[in-house]
Backbone:
């Protein structure tokens, strides 16, 4: 009998990895004890597997293609109902041209992630460029050159660092209907190498094995490749106190973050007849919204429920402030965010290109019946 191909061995390793992730990531080692959190974990794992297969199995930095990272049915890493994200593999020392269109977005950016590549979790964000720093044509179209050295000819340019491995693009929309839930929303976006790499090699045993390895790297990197969270090591804008935000702040070079967005995050906890009232004021900024996530940073069901609010969707008070209400049932007031009946989860703010100080939103837990 001939020896099994390497691809079969890699496939079995992938199956072994899925079992290991199930037993470790969705268990006591990571503080997961409730059966419902295990169930959410299994959904999280299968969404990550889909993401690895969709974006990384046939990923090729010599001939990159933009693929949509998350969708209403593929969620991880803190997806956003008001944003559409794409990514593509790149390689240091190469030159690429990105062509695209704002497509009505109130904000667009592209960032360079750095790290080992091959599906592995990025180690940081190396550089970035947003639409306010670019030349954009009246019809919303643009071109960006990505290379190691600035050509110095005035064209839109983004530096590829010696450790660059991937590009992430962000189109943010502030509309009444969440953009990510709109199946008809089309965003033209392409990337091509300036030097033709020629045809790729055929899909032989080695190439399929390497592709399975990339999927494994991706799944591992978002699960057991990350140690259990240490509250003392969280960024300052991440609160570990339920129902209480820390001051919003920009993330610096944190992987998969945009350098010009300020964030604030906290867990929420609510009894069945409790509501969380969040008060504050929107700063001067390009975009702002609040999103509800589960513990695995997956957004709630924005196709069928109101689980996020941007400024276009928010009813303001007469003095220009906002009052948002997080509750398990509709309290009959504006700005209700639907928890899906979940007693706990995560609240996540984004403020894009904010000007001046951002007032930290305040929180108060009250009886939901008192809101009527």
Residues:
């Amino acid at each position: 009998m001939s020896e099994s191909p390497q691809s079969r061995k890699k496939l079995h390793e992938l199956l072994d990895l899925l079992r290991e992730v199930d037993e470790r990531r969705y268990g006591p080692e990571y503080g997961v004890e409730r059966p419902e959190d295990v169930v959410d974990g299994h959904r999280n794992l299968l969404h990550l597997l889909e993401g690895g297969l969709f974006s990384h199995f046939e990923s090729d930095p010599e001939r990159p293609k933009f693929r949509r990272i998350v969708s209403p049915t593929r969620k991880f890493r803190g997806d956003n109902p008001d944003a559409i994200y794409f990514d593509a593999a790149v390689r240091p020392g190469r030159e690429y041209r990105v062509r695209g269109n704002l497509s009505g977005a109130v904000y667009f950016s592209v960032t360079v992630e750095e790290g080992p590549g091959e599906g592995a979790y990025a180690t940081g964000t190396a550089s970035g460029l947003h639409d306010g720093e670019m030349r954009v044509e009246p019809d919303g179209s643009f071109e960006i050159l990505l290379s190691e050295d600035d050509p110095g000819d005035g064209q839109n340019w983004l530096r590829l660092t010696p450790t660059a491995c991937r590009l992430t693009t962000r189109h943010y929309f502030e509309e009444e209907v969440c953009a990510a839930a709109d199946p008809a929303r089309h965003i033209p976006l392409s990337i091509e190498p300036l030097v033709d790499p020629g045809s790729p090699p055929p899909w032989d045993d080695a190439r399929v094995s390497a592709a399975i390895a990339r999927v494994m790297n991706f799944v591992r990197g978002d699960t057991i490749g990350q140690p259990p969270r240490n509250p003392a090591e969280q960024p300052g804008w991440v609160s570990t106190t339920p129902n209480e935000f820390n001051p919003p702040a920009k993330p610096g070079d944190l992987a998969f973050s945009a350098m010009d967005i300020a964030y604030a995050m906290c867990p929420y906890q609510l009894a069945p007849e409790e509501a969380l009232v969040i008060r504050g004021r929107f700063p001067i900024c390009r975009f702002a919204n609040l999103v509800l996530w589960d513990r695995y940073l997956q957004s709630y069901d924005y196709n069928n429920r109101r689980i996020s609010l941007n400024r276009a969707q928010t009813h303001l008070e007469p003095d220009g402030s906002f009052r948002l209400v997080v509750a398990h049932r509709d309290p009959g007031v504006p700005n209700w965010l639907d928890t899906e009946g979940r007693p706990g989860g995560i609240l996540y703010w984004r403020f894009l290109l904010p000007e001046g100080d951002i007032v930290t939103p305040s929180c108060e837990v009250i009886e939901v019946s008192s809101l009527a």
